[in-house]
Specification:
This protein has 318 residues and is an alpha/beta fold. Helix content is 29%, strand content 17%. It has 9 helices and 15 strands. The structure holds adenosine monophosphate and magnesium ion.
């Protein structure tokens, strides 16, 4: 099907081969995953990685997640441990990112990991991402495909809107299955969750048969103030509101709300999974409709609701 964007490509074999060429030429491309769209480049190449940082306007101390197809290539880069193997078996490929210690001989671009001794690794489940990883045969550095501190993209069109013609090639995978980022778990010490996500702490605890902690803030961030505002729609966001002010957009949840005027219902039947999936799309819609601010109803802080509240909290920072 034709679309109005000249840089969005249907994910067929011909275009996967074109994507491979782009990666080999150190270009960066838009890649669908089950969480959000990524801005992908060869993780071994400083040249590609530099382009990712520049396009995203990402501070150079904030490392990128490195995407692998399976354990084969991973083994050259990081030291595996028991907790990792358990979680890999339980959830991978899938929406979870592991922080592991880097091997000395690792060839991953130092710039991609911001000179750290650890690497964040993920194994996306999305079929197109997996086909791409197979055909390029290198790990892909791929942060979310948005300008730093803004909303993550959940469709190929979002990526095109974000970067315009600065990005020449986006593989179209339709809407992301989950629409919210992966859970990040640090396995270099006692397991702790750095970013809540699709896979809940409870599920991880069950898989590991032990209690784990949420860690506040990501300690690699050298200047914490800088990255407080994140996942931002670019207008003020106020959490835990019962109703909106006049002319304010209201993000609500559950059957007692109708989708009228300034009301944007994340899920009529109150499903937190559906709400997570609609969150970024809804905030983009609100921004496009030129609202000046957003009020959000209280979101239950259980399961994936924790991930939603984490993103809303960061989006509401000044
Ligand atoms: P994104 O760039 O949107 O995909 O988000 C990736 C997140 O992973 C960022 O918050 C990074 O700070 C975090 N991250 C990447 N590498 C590491 C690492 N080695 N240790 C801790 N966090 C990391
Ligand atoms: Mg991001």
């Amino acid at each position: 099907m034709k679309n109005i964007y000249s840089n969005i490509y249907e994910a067929n074999l011909t275009n996967l081969k074109k994507a491979k060429k782009n990666i080999e030429n150190n270009n960066v491309i838009g890649m669908p995953t089950e969480t959000v769209y990524g801005l992908a480049g060869n993780a071994y190449s400083n040249k590609s990685v530099k382009k990712i940082f520049r396009l995203k306007k990402r501070p150079n101390f904030n490392p990128l997640i490195i995407h692998f197809r399976d354990l084969k290539k991973l083994k050259n880069e990081v030291i595996l441990n028991k907790d990792f193997i358990r979680l890999y078996k339980a959830f991978c490929p899938g929406p979870i990112t592991f922080i592991l210690n880097k091997k000395k001989k690792s060839k991953i671009s130092k710039m991609a990991i911001a000179g750290k001794k650890t690497i964040a690794v993920r194994f996306p489940k999305n079929k197109i991402a997996r086909s791409l990883l197979k055909i390029v045969n290198v790990p892909l550095a791929a942060p979310s495909a948005n300008i730093a501190s803004k909303l993550s993209p959940t469709s190929a069109e979002d990526v095109a809107d974000e970067f315009g013609n600065k990005i020449k090639f986006i593989l179209d995978g339709g809407k992301c299955r989950f629409g919210l980022e992966s859970t990040i778990i640090d396995l270099t010490t006692k397991p702790s969750i750095l970013r809540p996500g699709i896979i809940s702490k409870e599920k991880i605890q069950k898989a590991l048969s032990k209690k784990i902690k949420n860690r506040k803030g990501i300690k690699i961030i050298k200047s914490p103030g800088q990255l407080k505002l994140h996942y931002s729609p670019g207008i003020p966001v106020k959490m835990n509101k019962k109703y909106p002010q006049k002319n304010q957009a209201f993000i609500c949840l559950g059957k007692k709300f109708r989708n009228t005027k300034n009301y944007f219902n994340l899920s009529k039947n109150g499903s937190l999974h559906e709400a997570a999936n609609n969150l970024y799309r809804t905030m983009r819609k609100i921004k496009k409709a030129k609202y000046k601010s957003i009020a959000v109803i209280k979101i239950p802080n259980r399961g994936i609701g924790q991930a939603i509240n984490d993103r809303l909290k960061k989006a509401s920072k000044k």
